[in-house]
Design goal:
Helix content is 27%, strand content 23%. With 377 residues, it is of the alpha/beta class. The protein has 2 domains: 1-30; 33-375, Purple Acid Phosphatase, chain A, domain 2, CATH 3.60.21.10. Strands 1-2-8-9-10-11-13-12 form an 8-stranded mixed β-sheet, covered by helices on one side. It has a 5-stranded mixed β-sheet with strand order 7-5-3-16-17, with helices on one face. A hairpin with a 5-residue loop joins strand 16 (349-355) and strand 17 (361-367). The termini are far apart.
């Protein structure tokens, strides 16, 4: 009888150990690291220089310069979102390879990442690996937090995540601005001359902690204050806003598309817009942008299956092309050539924003469809 009890106890312990191991694998408590081979990354031939910074207000001034010191014309920004380097999932390697492939192919002057990046319990190493990759390319970059960063006590907090990124010289982020909600609220001015700004880039923390997932009044006040200071010096300055979670106006505009009142300029909607329920929840950031007249583009991530752009009340609302392979990442569609066949479509890729000296912006969303992931080096 005693032998049987001992045997049952051992069996129970084995089952418990198996459940714990399964939980570790499933939840990503002990995640695979990316383990990037940084020795294989060749720095980009980057001509961008940091001219000045104002950390009190979270403002950086940068410029692309020619060898003779003159200002270059076009400035290329490469955007990723929802990379989801998370958990024990071999698919993060696909995301990593494609990210490197697109950086090396596009050779951007700057990289932006729109949130939900290094997500797993105990993710300090993962977060650092992302920063080390960007350091190896030698390109300036900026990043916003998504709704998933810091959602567990076993992860880096949102503040510490941004502080780690900010510790890298080529990462243009302000950890925090006094009196402004969130972390990483940052302005990057792309200078076209010593005094003129080709484009002012606003990066905003759209929230995630304590269920606060919208733009807060203090952020709108900061946006207005800093933008008015810029417009006082250069009244023709144009600007764009990057954030993770789309604002309510995306949902409102999509309803008008469905009613036939608007149309998408590019792309398609494959899931509901996951935004707040009203302009008030976004602290009327869109209305403030209309009032100031400078901001002509909002770009976001968060909704992995939406990749469209549309113009609404004179402002372009768009999604950066989603980039990750370890989260929900595909939609089903009926083929036009054969309605009886359903095909699963992936839409991962990147978005290229080209800023011109005449203060216009060209946008091109690019999918990773044209080559198999396993061919990416």
């Amino acid at each position: 009888m005693l032998f049987v009890k001992i045997l049952l106890l051992l069996l129970a312990l084995l089952i418990l150990a198996g459940l714990i191991a399964a939980g570790v694998i499933f939840l990503g408590v002990y995640p695979f690291n990316l383990r990037p081979d940084l020795s294989k990354i060749k720095p980009l031939d980057n001509k961008v220089v940091l001219l000045s910074s104002d950390m009190t207000n979270g403002v950086f001034n940068i410029a692309k310069k020619n060898p003779d010191g003159s200002f270059s014309d076009d400035f290329k920004i490469l955007g990723f979102t929802d990379l989801h380097f998370d958990g024990l999932n071999e698919r993060i390697q696909d995301t990593y390879k494609w990210m490197c492939y697109n950086i090396e192919k596009e050779k951007p002057d700057m990289v932006v990442i729109l949130g939900d990046t290094a997500l797993c319990y105990g993710n300090r190493t993962r977060t650092k690996e992302v920063a080390e990759i960007m350091k190896a390319y030698g390109v300036y970059w900026s990043i916003v937090l998504g709704n998933h960063e810091g959602e567990s006590r076993l992860e880096l907090s949102r503040k510490n995540t941004m502080a780690l990124y900010a510790s890298y010289e080529n990462c243009l982020v302000a950890v925090s601005v006094k009196g402004v909600h969130g972390f990483g609220n940052t302005v990057v001015n792309i200078m076209s001359s010593e005094k003129e700004i080709a484009q002012s880039l606003y990066f905003m923390d759209s929230g995630g902690e304590n269920n606060i997932k919208h733009i807060q009044p203090s952020q709108v006040e900061w946006y207005e204050r800093t933008l008015k200071a810029t417009l006082a010096k250069d009244p023709d300055t144009k600007s764009m806003i990057f954030m993770h979670i789309p604002i309510y106006k995306y949902k409102e505009a999509c309803e008008k598309v469905n009613n036939g009142e608007l149309r998408f300029i590019w792309g398609e909607q494959h899931e509901s817009v996951c935004s707040g329920k009203s302009d008030e929840e976004d602290s009327f950031i869109f209305q403030k942008a209309l009032e100031l007249g400078s901001t002509k583009l909002f770009s976001s991530g968060h909704d992995h299956l939406n990749d469209f752009g549309l113009d609404y009340q004179g402002i372009r609302l768009m999604y950066n092309q989603p980039s990750g392979y370890s989260c929900y990442d595909r939609y089903s569609t009926t083929l036009k050539r054969d309605p009886t066949v359903t095909e699963e479509i992936r839409i991962q890729g990147c978005t290229v924003y080209t800023i011109h000296n005449d203060k216009t912006v060209s946008v091109e969303s690019k999918m990773n469809r044209n080559a198999a992931v396993n061919t990416v080096q």
